């Protein structure tokens, strides 16, 4: 069994670094936490309610996963305004105050929205995926090597903005990174997955 007898509670506003050697199961745990995989035993809960998996996953907005390959997280046939709108709660639109603020924070240019995913750079598309995740008003964000593909300056900007939003909205973050410097900067607590 890859992950056994593991227990983790993430408080609102906490940023927990998940540490383990390569292949130990960090990405697998991230996918479990976000409801993309179903545990063979045990449960993932938000406020006492289980995070749903499978076809109903789409409705599980409270835990959002952002990982390092944004091109795999976007429908290549959808223009980016439709991709971004996937994150919006019913009744909200991209021109509302909160989406506009988030787009500005993360440097999403209006002209990108009529393009397709392959017409943005990897870093631009990743930032768009961060905004899409935040639009869903999650309680928790799971960041799996989220900024690994970015240059150091863009990485620092993204994290500065994300930490500001997370503190303001009291989001709980789980952060996976192979960069100890990044974890030193962003994490408020470290948890080891090592067996
Ligand atoms: N779909 C799958 N089917 C079978 N084995 C898998 C699958 N996905 C991952 N694994 C295996 O599960 C183990 C854990 O993989 P995982 O990607 O969770 O590790 P990780 O800690 O995130 O590694 P890294 O730091 O290298 O990204 C690995 O041995 C991997 O080969």
UniProtKB/TrEMBL annotation:
Residues 1-195 form the ABC transporter domain. Pfam families: ABC_tran (PF00005). Keywords: ATP-binding, Nucleotide-binding, Transport. InterPro entries: AAA+_ATPase (IPR003593), ABC_transp_ATP-bind (IPR050319), ABC_transporter-like_ATP-bd (IPR003439), ABC_transporter-like_CS (IPR017871), P-loop_NTPase (IPR027417). One of its GO terms (molecular function) is ATP binding. SMART domains: AAA. The keyword DNA-binding does not apply. The keyword Protease does not apply. Belongs to the ABC transporter superfamily. This is ATP-binding cassette domain-containing protein.
């Amino acid at each position: 069994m890859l992950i056994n007898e593991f227990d983790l509670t993430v408080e609102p506003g906490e940023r927990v670094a998940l540490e383990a050697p390569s292949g130990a199961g960090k990405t697998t745990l991230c996918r479990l936490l976000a409801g993309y995989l179903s545990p063979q035993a045990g449960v993932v809960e938000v406020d006492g309610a289980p995070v749903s998996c499978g076809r109903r996953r789409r409705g599980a907005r409270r835990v959002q996963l952002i990982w390092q390959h944004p091109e795999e997280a976007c429908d290549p046939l959808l223009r980016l305004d439709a991709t971004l709108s996937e994150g919006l709660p019913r009744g909200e639109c991209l021109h509302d105050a909160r989406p506009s603020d988030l787009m500005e924070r993360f440097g999403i240019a209006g002209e990108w929205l009529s393009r397709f995913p392959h017409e943005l750079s990897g870093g631009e598309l990743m930032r768009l995926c961060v905004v899409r995740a935040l639009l869903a008003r999650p309680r928790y964000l799971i960041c799996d090597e989220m900024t690994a593909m970015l240059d150091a300056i863009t990485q620092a900007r993204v994290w500065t903005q994300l930490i500001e939003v997370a503190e303001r909205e009291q989001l709980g973050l789980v952060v996976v990174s192979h960069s100890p410097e990044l974890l030193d900067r962003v994490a408020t607590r470290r948890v080891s997955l090592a067996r």
